[in-house]
Design a protein that fits this description.
With 1039 residues, the protein is α+β, with helices and mostly antiparallel strands. The protein is built from 41 helices and 20 strands. The chain folds into 7 domains: 89 residues, Phosphorylase Kinase, domain 1, CATH 3.30.200.20; 143 residues, Transferase(Phosphotransferase) domain 1 (Transferase(Phosphotransferase), domain 1); 134 residues, TolB, N-terminal domain (Rossmann fold); 140 residues, no CATH class; 91 residues; 70 residues, no CATH class; 137 residues, Serine Threonine Protein Phosphatase 5, Tetratricopeptide repeat, CATH 1.25.40. Helix 28 runs antiparallel to helix 29, helix 29 packs antiparallel against helix 30 and helix 30 runs antiparallel to helix 31.
């Protein structure tokens, strides 16, 4: 029933056809009524603008824009049906929709399901993408303008914001906001002309954030406060407010809410794809939670991202064809004739060409051709004629300069615009500068605009450090950008290759040199490989500026073996910026590498640097940058394992001022893990009872807890990252946490897609099943992945598959895979390494003794024949000693026993001589030292434990041999990770079980023998014919 007329603005039908029934809603700019279309006999929504806005719309612009919007026809756009002015009231009509606004939905339920939000966002994005293609920008995307009806979203109110924006200040004299503060883009707030669809993208991202988090991304007590935060505060990370939001969705929102339009998605279609996870993650904003913290800035003072500027990089467009001139600089247009004489076109063209001079790789139409065309009267006066001018000169793009008066008579506003000659309607780039009207200021202004143009061409953020452009070679700059993009994904090998290209293109380019050195250091390259880059970068510190120049000096100090100086530099870097991840990693590295031992005031030996502090520095780096889990295998693992060992065999070496050698074991003292150095005769000598075993065990427990916390932080920050779950699984297995390991392995397996990673996760899954005692499950998984690999896997895959094949008794397959994995050794022919790999496989299994002897002799002969004399001892030890140790019980002495080196070969050689007592004594001495130092069987490689037990058994100590093996098998839940990465370790597991079964049977323990045989059989159910003697042993009746 219609309301009384006193509640309605007019009783006269609007446009002669629309009566008003009742008010539906009221906003800052207009009121919406339910109306009746008398001509069509249908309900409509009528929107009447508030009267205090009319002065800003009185020139007819509003009606023209509404008419333009009425041409939009899209399934997700609520169309404008009609518009007009009646009795001084501006109005327009839309279909009346039975449903609710997205705002009403949010008020009813603060946080909406992710799938629902994405569905609504994609439909709105489709509508916006269509409108943008028609040249229409919405400018006021907000929940109130999104209607939900019939299972779909409709975007309303096209046409109102643009005329308001163009005729008003940001906040009008009447207090009305043009746009809605919670959803306005920084460029809209700044009143920039020429807003494009990326402003709508920003607004939609704010809407999506609010629907997921329950509140807008930027709040404040006043509209001015909200606008200020849009302009100055980094976009918040959605998963801090709601951890279950997928990682790809957070990445999409962070990029869409970038402060600069160029840093956002290029169009709504790209944003839609990213929202749905239909595109691979890019380098944009790679660090999930970093945006809520103060962004650390160590690539440059103002550019901020997780690990430097690469997070702000966009996917670079394909370059123009190599043979086409890229740019012509057309003369300029003056909108103030007063400036025409001062800023003559030819003079400014020359200044601009000079400003672009540092980059000769830019394909510019020769300036003399341009000046000659001007001299002949070919002078463009509009953008359209400038496009024709550029086309005639063979350019694909052209620069147009627009000059107008500044705010004062002695200033000018210079706008530089880049157009594509194929579509000169809208510029692809524009930047403006206001400068004083004097020659020096004008030259500075043109140089700054030229710099911004180059950054646009390279697709770099306009806040990038000047040092990035300190090379005339655009290819070098592009290579550095590629490196940063790779670092955004923590793909260190790819980053190293890119920075290496930059240094090849320009060996004097400081930014390329610095990052090539830094990535080399992170990857653990031999220092000789990255030292030259670090020193060269340090020598260019002035070119690099702060903080990169300081970082180069610190890195160079590390490279030349001066960790104390490096630590001083890194501490100063962190004092300036405590959120600098590069600084924390550098501090951890210099502390970890500092092996100097000094006497304290009390005369006690102390390390100069604290590994406890190093562990804390690494922990802080990974807390600030949880996306570093992607580099766990290439960077993080080696650092964490060094300063936070979880196994008792890790020692810390030290060197005194007089070159005296020291060694230390970890011990928990109060709340700190301490390393107290003690002199030793040589580093390979194990000092007995240096640290009490309980204190050492407590230190290892503390390390396991800290590593578990790091893994938990990674998966908490990136719950859908296979890399994070893989790292957490490995950390949990190292810590002996079976429950956490099982969960992490399952998540990693579900998320992994890359073949290499899937294979690594299988290795972890097999290890986890073994630790849980599920031998059959481990064997099934190993068998399946070896079978699926086919006959010709890559060398890398073969290296990973060989231990899995050996674990299940597929000895021939393990030998074949070992041969395939053999690489060219430089000093040693590949064929020789392939034979050595097969020898190791058969020797580790303890089977095929004739084949082992033949291969041993062949490898020994080839070493003498094909390897240089000075290299032979090293390669003889590497290729012959291990097979001799592991095959001894099956083959007797091999080549390495002729000149035994190392206590195990010596003990076996003693058995050959008939000195059983000497052999037993040698092994027992080593075991006693380990016990004194708190080392358990799980701290020793399984194949070594097995060989020791076999020596004890052969020397007559059956009880000692059995106890030794039992202790190792009982700690399988925390056995060393090389069980799944080394062929001998994999073989040692079932060999130990077979021996236990045989020994239990020999002393009449039938139940024990049966139990051990059952476990071995579970692993060896699909073993090959080489294993027949072992299987015969397992099938013998128990006594």
């Amino acid at each position: 029933m219609p309301l009384p007329e006193t509640h309605l603005p007019t009783a006269v039908p609007l446009g002669g056809r629309y009566t008003l029934e009742r008010e539906l809603g009221r906003g800052a700019a207009a009121t919406v009524y339910l109306g009746r279309d008398l001509r069509e006999g249908r309900d409509v929504a009528v929107k009447i603008l508030h009267a205090d806005l009319h002065p800003h719309l009185a020139d007819g612009r509003f009606l023209r824009e509404i008419q333009l919007a009425s041409r939009l026809a899209h399934p997700h756009i609520l169309p404008v049906l009609d518009s007009g002015e009646t009795g001084g009231q501006l109005w327009y009509t839309m279909p009346f929709v039975e449903g609710e606004s997205f705002r009403a939905r949010l008020e009813r339920e603060r946080q909406l399901p992710v799938d629902e939000v994405v569905a609504v966002a994609r439909q709105v994005a489709e509508a916006l993408a269509y409108a943008h293609r028609q040249g229409v920008v919405h400018r006021d995307v907000k929940p109130e303008n999104i209607l939900l009806a019939g299972g779909k979203a409709l975007l309303a109110d096209f046409g109102i914001a643009k005329p308001l924006d163009q005729r008003s200040t940001r906040i009008t004299a009447t207090g009305h906001m043009v746009g809605t503060p919670a959803y306005m883009s920084p460029e809209q707030i700044g009143g920039e002309a020429g807003l494009d669809g990326r402003s709508d993208q920003y607004g939609l991202a704010c809407v999506v954030y609010e629907a997921l988090a329950g509140e807008p991304p930027f709040g404040g007590p006043t509209p001015q406060a909200v606008l200020s935060r849009h302009l100055h505060q980094p976009a918040p990370a959605i998963r801090l407010a709601r951890a279950t939001v997928p990682e790809h969705l957070e990445r999409a929102l962070l990029r869409a809410m970038a402060k600069t339009p160029a840093e956002r998605f290029p169009d709504m279609a790209s944003f839609m794809a990213a929202l749905a996870g239909d595109v691979a993650p890019t380098a944009e904003f790679p660090l999930g939670l970093r945006a809520v913290r103060r962004r650390w800035t160590w690539l440059l003072g103002a550019v901020v991202v997780g690990l430097g500027a690469w997070g702000l990089l966009r996917t670079r467009a394909a370059p123009a064809p190599a043979g086409d001139p890229l740019i012509v600089i057309a003369p300029m247009a003056h909108r103030d004739e007063r400036l025409a004489d001062l800023l003559r076109a030819e003079a400014c063209l020359t200044v601009l060409y000079d400003a672009l001079g540092p980059w000769p790789d830019l394909r510019l139409v020769n300036r003399m051709r341009v000046l000659d065309a001007l001299q002949r009267g070919d002078r463009p006066v509009t953008v359209a004629t400038a496009s024709q001018f550029a086309t005639r000169l063979g350019a694909a793009q052209f620069v147009w300069v627009d000059v107008a008066s500044g705010l004062s008579r002695d200033s000018a506003r210079i706008e530089l615009l880049l157009y594509d000659t194929r579509d000169a309607e809208q510029p692809v780039f524009s930047q403006a500068a206001v400068v004083a009207v004097d020659p020096a200021a004008l030259e500075r202004g043109f140089r700054q605009l030229a710099r911004l143009l180059v950054l646009h061409i390279l697709r770099l953020p306009d806040t990038v450090n000047e040092a990035v452009l300190a090379t005339p070679k655009l290819e070098a700059i592009t290579a550095v950008a590629d490196g940063w993009e790779a670092l955004g994904e923590w793909d260190l090998p790819r980053a190293r290759a890119a920075f290496g290209r930059a240094t090849q293109v320009d060996p004097t380019y400081g930014m390329g040199l610095l990052w090539r050195a830094q990535v080399g250091a992170w990857l653990g390259e031999p220092v000789e490989q990255w030292r030259p880059y670090a020193i060269a970068a340090r020598n260019l510190a002035d070119q690099l500026g702060a903080p990169d120049g300081h970082a180069a000096s610190a890195l160079a100090a590390l490279a030349v073996g001066d960790p104390a100086t490096a630590c001083t530099a890194y501490r100063e870097q962190l004092r300036r910026d405590p959120n600098d991840v590069r600084g924390w990693l550098g501090l951890g590295d210099c502390l970890a590498q500092d092996d100097a031992v000094l006497r304290d005031a009390g005369g006690r030996w102390q390390f100069r640097a604290s590994w406890h502090e190093a562990a804390s520095a690494y922990g802080e780096a990974f807390r600030l940058a949880p996306s570093a889990h992607r580099a766990y295998r290439s960077m993080a693992a080696m650092r964490l394992a060094r300063v936070m060992p979880v196994r008792g065999y890790v020692v810390r070496p030290g060197v005194g001022a007089d070159s005296a050698r020291f060694v230390a074991f970890p011990a928990l003292a109060s709340d700190t893990v301490a390393w107290s150095p003690r002199p030793v005769a040589a580093l390979d000598e194990i000092a007995p009872a240096v640290v009490e075993a309980p204190a050492r065990r407590a230190a290892l427990v503390r390390h396991r807890a800290r590593l578990a916390a790091i893994g938990s932080e990674w998966t908490g920050a990136f719950p859908r990252s296979a890399d994070a779950w893989e790292a957490r699984a490995e950390l949990a297995l190292d810590a002996g946490d079976g429950t956490a390991a099982a969960t992490a392995v399952a998540r990693a397996a579900a998320l992994a897609t890359a073949p290499g990673q899937r294979l690594r996760v299988v290795q972890l899954a097999v290890r986890q099943r073994l630790a849980a005692g599920d031998m059959a499950g481990a064997a099934r998984l190993a068998d399946s992945v070896v079978a699926a690999a086919g006959p010709a896997p890559s060398a890398e895959d073969a290296r990973a598959l060989a231990p899995l094949a050996m674990l299940t008794g597929q000895v021939h397959a393990a030998a074949r895979l070992g041969r395939r994995a053999a690489a060219d050794g430089g000093e040693v022919p590949q064929a020789l390494l392939a034979d050595a790999a097969a020898l190791l496989a058969y020797a580790a299994a303890g089977v095929a003794p004739d084949s082992v002897r033949a291969l041993d002799a062949r490898v020994a002969a080839a070493l003498e024949r094909e390897v240089a004399r000075d290299a032979r001892p090293r390669w003889r030890a590497a290729l012959l000693e291990q097979p001799a140790m592991f095959a001894f019980s099956a083959t007797g002495p091999l080549a390495a026993h002729r000149r035994p080196e190392g206590w195990l070969l010596e003990a076996q050689a003693a058995l050959v001589r008939g000195d059983s007592a000497g052999a037993r004594r040698r092994v027992q001495e080593v075991l006693a030292v380990r016990r004194d130092d708190g080392l358990g069987p799980a701290d020793v490689a399984g194949e070594i434990v097995l060989a020791e037990a076999e020596v004890l058994r052969a020397a007559g100590d059956l009880a000692g041999a059995e106890a030794h093996l039992t202790a190792w098998l009982d700690e399988l839940d925390r056995v060393r990770p090389d069980l799944m990465t080394r062929v001998p370790s994999a073989a040692a597991l079932w060999r130990a079980m077979v021996l236990q079964g045989a020994w239990h049977d020999a002393r009449g323990d039938g139940s024990g023998a049966t139990a051990w045989r059952r476990r071995a059989n579970a692993l060896l159910a699909k073993s090959d014919e080489a294993m027949q003697p072992v299987m015969d042993l397992l099938e013998r009746p128990v006594r």
